[in-house]
Fold each of these.
Amino acid sequence: MRRLIPILILAALAPGCAFRPEAEASPRAWRGPVGDAADICAALTTPGSGASLPAVLPSDRPVRVLAFGDFGDGGRDQSAVARAMERYARQHRFDFGLTLGDNFYPQGLASPMAGRWDRDWEAMYDPLGIRIYATLGNHDYQRRASPDAEIARSRLSSSWCLPRRYYTFMAGPVQFFALDTNPIARNRTPVREQLAWLRSALRASRATWKVVYGHHPVYTGGEHGEALGYLAGMRERLLPILKEERVDVYLTGHDHDLEALKPEGGVVFFVSGGGGKDKRPLKTDRCRAWGRSVYGFTVLEARKDEMTVRYVGTDGEVLYETSWKKGSPPADCSRP
């Protein structure tokens, strides 16, 4: 039997960016990746440098990925989730990770050298020994300098990687597409450029599985749900591309809970916003396969013919798990 390897689900400063003074963090010495997983962060920061996409693992290898969102406040709940990830990884090693945005509350960070990098990122996630490929959330945009600061930190950290605001890479039989959902949700520049890039990249993909990840969901049973108009905008602008280009999984945060939502057009939806910021109640069970307002993280495992997604709580308990074969996702849910 082929052994699964675990994964955990996470560029240069813009000219003229001014940073507010903060206590500085020290760059961390690179220790090298754990196991067979390649560190592709440098390759992702220089797109077009090769004929093929950067790959964490060869296409014939299974992968295990850790994903989490809505976490970065430096509090004890964030720490509890991080320690649970570390305990889980001792028995089920991750290949790499993904963040689903809201990396630093309440308004991002002013500098790639801000002191909170040590406390709220490296101290929490360096012990996992993996690269974590990040995306931006709405709180990462509250401070104008933060997106560029988070990109710049990629050159200084051995675990954090946000090479640019949206990007794609390979890992085993999966192609991952990292989105900046903020302009998509708010219909702001460069929404058209990003969506055109996504459609083109999806159409060109020859991967067995296509996983798109970012911050804002298109569907959620949490507090954002039907109440906020911009999620309707996500459905209008992003969902048709996901369905038409045959995406397998759309993985997000934003609502502070854990949810598995029934598919639409073959796209299966997962929300993993239990990374440590205050929990929020679920509001509806419409088209929901499972959901709980708890802290925890998501584990995605992919073989050539099968995908498994599970939610794990802070006590290490598997709260929910679902698997399906390629081409046979769970049945669609009828939505108005």
Amino acid sequence: MLDHISDSLPMFGVSFFEISDSIISALKSVDYRDVALISLDNDLDPIVVNGRVLDAGDGVAVARFLVNRASDGFGDIAHTPPVIIHTTNEQAAGAMQDLFTTARWQFDRVIPYGAESWVGEVWIQRVRSMIIGNVSDRKTIATIR
């Protein structure tokens, strides 16, 4: 993903998060107007920290946080970054889509296929389209993978 973003959108900074709590913590301290796009997977791989296997969380938790934060008056819908969902988990994708639809939040979904070929074939085109359609001076792309 990073290579595709760097090649297609070099003017944007990119932050990657492997744990849902990490992206939630980062988003708590950021103005949504400074975020160009958020890319969410759902089924995050467990990670090993100091010899312990930790649950990395999931994209639904991040989606719920985003929607709740916006509805709590942090920002209006005009200043929420678009979200692209990329998961093969149909149930989780449906839950995230329902959350974003109810909140009138702009989102799209890409279904991964063929190892990572979908990133260069479909995902980056959707990312570019969403950013170009919604961003004038935002600086960061946040992605959870």
Amino acid sequence: MTVSRPPAPFDESDGSRVPDRADGLGRARRLLLSPREEWRRIARERPDDRSLWLQWVMPLAAIGPLAGLVGGLVFGAPAANLVGIDLGAGFYWRGALAGFLGALLGVVAVATLARLLAARFGATCDGRTGLTLAAYSFTAAWLAGTFALVPTLAPLGLLGLYSIYLLNLGARELTGVSDDRALGYTAALVVGGVIAALLPGWLFA
């Protein structure tokens, strides 16, 4: 059995803020292309919750819903177009709102579960660590939402499943969960996050 690794120590002098727009583009690129190294860099930071929400989570979480809204209003839904049904602008506005709220709820769910389940999986996670893990793990899924701008390309949004891999790596680096328990920890967070993200869609249906 693999022994749990202690989470990397936070170093406020190494970065206590969320990257600005220019730095943020670099962070997103590095999370996609060299995630392990970027998580190690993130583990040395201690951004405040407000900055994470306002400068990272909310802007990126809005990408998919806005792309879907514009794509729907301009091109319509492919299936509805085939049968000549006009879904109306309200349908796309409701979908965008549900998508945005779902993205935010997904972050809350993953962050909360990461903290609540940490001890069960031999990990160490406080509220801020949970939020950091959730916020950056969703990056791939949010960026993949840009494909919704052209509805026929929307299935490529499945590339956002890469976020599950990011979550797994991030959990190991930020919480110190052992390799043999990281998969179960990640699976629990994914299930909780997906359920929370789908709730607004069910309510708006």
